[in-house]
C-alpha cells in the first residue's frame, strides 16, 4: 500500500512515519492488512527518511498543484494530511494561513478527485473550531464558532472533506485533535505552545513562561496517543462513520494548575518551580475560547481511547525522550 | 451612499433594487440615513436599470477579480451579495457551485479587504446548512451539517464572512433565508423550486408537480419579507451582532399539505386541484434534510419579523402579480 504524509518532516509527521514503518502494514478499506510498499513524506523541508528504502521524500509547497500531483500517485491508498500553519501564525499572517490551511487542503481533495480510485484521507482538526459561549462539555452537535482564523480555516476544511466524501471523491475522516502535550523540541508559534513548554522546559533545566491563568482548562492528548489515533482513524470502517466524517478524539481535561501539580508530583519542586507566570492577553484570548473538554462517546464507540492522567503523560514523555531526572 | 447588489439581475436582486430606489436612502453604520447616490447591479446578464440615473449596470463573471474590482468602488458602503448557484444546480455541477458559491464569495471579501474603508456586506445563506438528525426547532447553537454541496458552500461562506468581520476587513452579516415562496416567473434548478411552483402554476391555470410528501415541513418566507429583511439586516448595528454575524431569519413553518390547503382557501378547489403529486426521490432527499423551523428569537430581538399565515403570503403574491382569480 502506498501512503502519503503531508507535513512529513514535522513532529507528528515524523512520529507517524516511524510508527507506520515499524508496523509495516495498514488495513485497507476492507479491513485487510496490506504491506506498506511506499511511504511518501512531503514537506517544505526534506524529511528524515529513516534510511528505509520504502520512504520517498518530496520537497515542495503543498499549495501548488504539481507538488501534490507528484506526491499523490494513481494508487496512493492512504493520505495523512498533517501540514498546517499553526494558530498563532495563522492569526499573525492571514494570507499564509488561508493558503496552507484552506487552499492546500482543498487542492489535495481536488487531486484525489482526479484519480480513478478513492483514497482514504485523514485531515486533522482542532479544538479551535469551537468558541463563544460553550457548554462545559462540548457535544457532537455543538455548533462550530471559531474565534481565530486558524479555527475558521480548520472548520472550512472539515466541511470540504465531508462534502468530498459524501460525493464519493475521497473516503475522508477528520480527527479533531486535543492540544498535543508534551511536544519535544522548541516552542512554536501555536497559541497553545506553552501547554508543552511548561513541562518540557523545566525538565530541561530551563525557565518556562505560563501565559494563562492557572484555572484555564485545556483538552490534551499525548503524542503517543495522537499517533495511535491517526492510524486508528485511517483504519476505521467508512460505513461506520456514515455521513458525518468528523470525530472528536478522546483527550484529558486538565487545568494549568493541575498540569503543574502533576509535574511537581513526577519531577519534584525544583523542576516545577521553574515555571514563571506571566499573563499574555493575546494567548489567553485565543486559548480561552477553546473548549476544556468535549463529549467523545462517538469516538469511544468506534474504538478510540484517550489517556487517564497527565502525570502518566509526563512519565511517557520522560521515557520517550530519555530524560534523567536530577 | 454607493451600494452594490451582486445577482442584481435576479429575482431578489431586482426586487431589492426597486425597493432601495423607492426608499432613496439607507442608514449608514452610525444609523444616519444617507441618500442613495449610486446603485450598481452586477450580474452575468445585464440587469434592468429601471430607467433611473442612479443605477449602473455591470455585466461579468463574479468569480473574476477585475469584475469585482470594477463593481466595488473605493467608497462602496454597502454590498448585498445575492449571486449564487442554486441547490439543485450546485449538486449537479460541483465545480460551478464551488466557483460561484465559494470562490466568488471569498473574492468579494478579498476585494473589500483591499479597500481602505470597511464596507457593510450582507451574505445570504440558507436552511441547507443544516441537516442530519435535527431537533424539531433548530437552535442558534445547533451544529451545521449540510447534506448538499450548496449547503456546504453556504456554510463555508458564513465562516469566511465571520472571520473577515472579526478581523475588521468587512462589517459583515449573514442572513439565513428560509425558502422563498411564492417566487414569480418560471421554475428554477433549486431543489425547493416546487415550493413556489405548487402555488404559482395552479394560479396561472397550469398543472404543478409536487415532488415531496404532503407531510414535508418547509420553512418559508415571502419575497416581500425577504427584501425587508435584507435591508434591515444591512442596517443592523454591527455592535449588536457582536462576533456572531449569522442570523436565522424568522419564517413560517408549514407542511406541504397546509400550503395546498391555504391555496384551496384563497383560490378555490379548481386551482388547488391542478397540483399533481409525483414523488421525486432526489428532491425529497435534499429538501427532507432541511429543518422545518428554527429558533428566531435572536433575529426578533434585533427587530426582524416573519409572516403570520401562508394564506396571507398567497394573497400578497396575487396582489403583487396582479393575478385575477377566475
UniProtKB/TrEMBL annotation, chains A, B:
<keyword id="KW-0521">NADP</keyword>
<feature type="domain" description="NAD-dependent epimerase/dehydratase">
    <location>
        <begin position="3"/>
        <end position="209"/>
    </location>
</feature>
<dbReference type="GO" id="GO:0016491">
    <property type="term" value="F:oxidoreductase activity"/>
</dbReference>
<dbReference type="InterPro" id="IPR050005">
    <property type="entry name" value="DenD"/>
</dbReference>
<protein>
    <submittedName>
        <fullName>SDR family oxidoreductase</fullName>
    </submittedName>
</protein>
<dbReference type="InterPro" id="IPR001509">
    <property type="entry name" value="Epimerase_deHydtase"/>
</dbReference>
<dbReference type="InterPro" id="IPR036291">
    <property type="entry name" value="NAD(P)-bd_dom_sf"/>
</dbReference>
<keyword id="KW-0119">Carbohydrate metabolism</keyword>
<dbReference type="Pfam" id="PF01370">
    <property type="entry name" value="Epimerase"/>
</dbReference>
